[in-house]
Amino acid sequence: MSDTATEGLVDLPPSAKLVYKVLEYNGPLTQKGIVEESMLSARTVRYALERLEGIDAVDEDVYFADARQNLYEITGEIGTENAEAAVCND
Fold first, then answer.
1. What is 3-88's CATH number, 1.10.10.10, 3.30.70.100, 3.40.50.150, 3.30.200.20?
2. How many CB atoms lie within 10 A of CB 56?
3. Which of 4, 43, 52, 76 has the most crowded CB, counting CB atoms within 10 A?
């Protein structure tokens, strides 16, 4: 995922960019953890995660401590400097 993924990140709403940065700074988190760290509503975080998954910027895995939840993490395919530039454009 090179320039097209970065372009996809640039086109995302600010809430999705914030969720991306929260995951970048804190590492893998559950949706509840993202809500707490970002101070966004659960609904907004769900929407942002859907958008990030749509451009393959985030992976969803089972959270083994509580199988009812999912663990989200950045795929690592988007270069950090490209992602930073995309997020800072807002």
1. 1.10.10.10
2. 14
3. 52
